[in-house]
Amino acid sequence: MRRAFLILIDGLRPDVLEAEVAAGRLPNLKALTDRGARSRAISVLPTTTSVAYLPFLTGCFPGTCNVPSIRWLDREAYTGRWWKDRAAVRNYCGYQAGMLDDDIAPGVQTIFQLVPESLAIFTMITRGLTPGRDPAQGARKVVGSLAHYVDCYGLLDRRAAREFLAAVDQPWRFVFTQFPAVDGYTHGATPAAREVLQSLHFIDRSIGRAVVRLDELGALDDTLFVLVSDHGATKMHTHVDLAEWFMARGVPTLHHPVLWARNPRAAVMVAGNAFASIYARPGVPRERRWTMEQLRRPEAFGTDHDVVAALVREPAVAFVAGEDAEGNVRLASSAGEAIITRDEAAIRYTLLSGDPLELGGSFSGDRDAWLARTFDAPFPDAAVHLLDQFSSRRAGDLVLAAREGYDFRNRYEIPEHKSGHGSLIRAHMHTPLWTNRPLPLVPMRTADVFPALLDWLDVPVPQGIDGRAVWQPGRAPRAKHPHRQPAGALHSR
């Protein structure tokens, strides 16, 4: 029986993982992937926990799932009533986390629905799971909340490892395991902090034990391992609280955790914290977003100036994005403006007065061309993911991406985020993609992992997903692994 293990190390930068392997401190991961591949993939917008899990578990981008961020406002339903309308202002970081499954577009299927013989450990996305297939959900909620304030993320990883190792001896065809400690320790320090590296060493030993056991069972040759992350991270030297920014301009602002403001003229939804969605005139229900041209008018936010122009002058803001017309996206930065359009043939990035994406000029191509052209650019795959963001009716009127070293939240962020993510910058978008099977020599997105898992498990791939079937591990010849106990697998450091 073929089996697949998807291991997600939340918030892990690929360069940190690569450096630890090069230094010889992750012997089991090195041994496992020597006959496979150690590569990188491009994440989604926003590069934020839970939302950035969607590509792995559904094959779809956040916009396709109609879950544009971890915080969003339903402009059609919110009427300004603090208590009665609270469900129209979403925040997956709190008690509303359980609403995520129902918020995902009805036509989107998870791998848990497609593969009934699946188990998930510490998953935020549970559509299709029964309680018996989600054994650590209670621990994730209780210990996860505790860890945020007392910095005991190692407890979560130890529980995840225990469930992961137990699953090896059970007849699950697909096992998804999230290790959360790296992200937690990164937020409290740096992406390569001592605690981050210790967490990696622990995960390496756990994977080593799993490989030894699978070898003993004679199942290793029929097992696909895929190790990934949902996003990278960078150290933050400056917090620019966007809610304060608007309020300093006399704009009553709705924001978390203060979910009520009298006659708000702006709503600020921050994620990561280097990404933000801005909604104009919340409390006045409307079906459609306003265009950037409309949002530039002083009356949009009730000010005496162009708010978009003021935002792009802020050093923290890489660029501001908004709709130009239905299906088109206009970008504004301190470098000028450009527009993204698309038709059946291509996605076009056209410079108007500047180059916000720093591509060096206009560019046109399909999704594959965009990925290849921008994989190592300052904003990888940006046009694809900005178009996806604005495909969701729930997305903001404006979307802001932060420059490296800046984020958009200060008050109420307890403890302080010393590192973060969420933006479209390269350090947030690049993620590790490591596996014990060869990878194709083409650039990949995190959404491309989903059809590869289904291919290995011989499960039909749903129509209409964003992931491409560029990696088909189930159809490639399977090299036999030598019988071995990976060096250091059962030894602590």
Can you lay out the helices and strands and say which pair or pack?
Blueprint: E1 3-9, H1 14-22, H2 27-33, E2 37-42, H3 54-58, H4 62-65, E3 71-73, E4 89-91, H5 100-103, H6 111-114, E5 118-121, H7 137-150, H8 153-168, E6 174-179, H9 181-188, H10 194-216, E7 223-228, E8 234-235, E9 238-239, H11 242-247, E10 253-255, E11 266-271, E12 275-280, H12 292-296, H13 298-301, H14 307-312, E13 317-323, E14 329-333, E15 336-342, E16 347-351, E17 363-365, H15 367-374, H16 382-389, E18 398-402, E19 406-407, E20 419-420, H17 426-429, E21 430-435, H18 449-456
Parallel strand pairs: 1-6, 1-7, 5-6, 9-19, 10-11
Antiparallel strand pairs: 2-21, 3-4, 7-21, 8-20, 11-12, 12-18, 13-14, 13-18, 14-15, 15-16, 16-17
Description of the molecule:
- The chain is an alpha+beta fold.
- The chain folds into two domains: 3-67 and 104-234 and 427-475, Alkaline Phosphatase, subunit A (3-Layer(aba) Sandwich); 238-422, no CATH class.
- The protein has 18 helices and 21 strands.
- The chain has a nine-stranded mixed β-sheet. A six-stranded mixed β-sheet has the order 2-21-7-1-6-5, with helices on both faces.
- A hairpin with a 2-residue loop joins strand 14 (329-333) and strand 15 (336-342).
- It is globular.
